[in-house]
Write a structure and sequence with these properties.
The chain contains 15 helices and no strands. α3 packs across α8. It starts with a helix and ends in a 7-residue tail after the last helix.
Length: about 325
Amino acid sequence: MSDPNLKKLRDKYVGKLTMKEPYSKTKLLSKQARGVLDLLRPFTLMAPFLVSMSVMVASLIYNLQYTSGFTASQNWWITVGQAAFTIAIVNAASNSLNQATDVESDSISKAYRPIPRGMVKAEGAQSLAYILYLFALLRAVTINVWFGIFIFLIMIFTVTYSLPPRMKKYLFINQIWIAIPRGMFGILASWSVFGDPFTPTPLIIGGIATTFLIGGMATKDIVDSVADKQTGVHTLINTYGNKKTAMISFPFMFFPFFFILIFIHQGSLQPYLWPLCIFSIISCFIVYLMMRDTESKTLENVHSWSIMYVEYIFFALCFALLTIFSKELNIPNIFG
């Protein structure tokens, strides 16, 4: 922001725009309020909100087209908004709990976060997490039974990731433990709002998302490599280094999108979904960045982590758009 007048206005009413800027009191938010907001890590909430919303709408359209007797209420969009908001709240609770239990590690590698800076107490962050978890669960069961069950499973995985048995500290298991709720359970929960979550389409898309995240979530550990090792957390990054981790992550991030062609050929996925294979190329770029990534001066994490999140969002958006507008797009079947 080069204009000094605009910068003064921003500092007065908005304050810091990135996690790494110093906390300051503004017209809109106090330091403590901004600290609580940073606990929730708003950028990371975009993925679960947009991904779940996209999958819900895709489920609605898919079932209208392929499920006989299926009808949708006029207020379907309200249900979508409420369910997507619920999934985002679960993620916000997970973020708050993770920071409450990672104070020692964050004091080393992410001292700018609200708890190490003294803006929020760890006990307060943990209490906030439990309140958000309870709110999300109570809200989820009002959508439908299966949605409530999947939200509960997501909660179990995210809680045990941070609290005993603290799966975060176990090599490779930590990758799987965070990928399953954000990938498979997130997709199935979203699909269950309007459709049967145990049909091939949501199961395969959920499996693709989970496999991608098993590899992609290694990017979040690059900044924390030293801190994790000092606090007894074993990750691919602090065990094998960036280059070897990138090579280990590559098949998980590349082949799931390539396998879409196989599922289409077998008749498990609709033919119009073959353009999703292009995400294999983006995964290659992320792997390249992983090999050379260093900490960003403004972003909370490295560039490969940010692009990984964006890729996941666009994968879900493209899946939804291809499903919603499959007839209008008239995408040719490459298998004839």
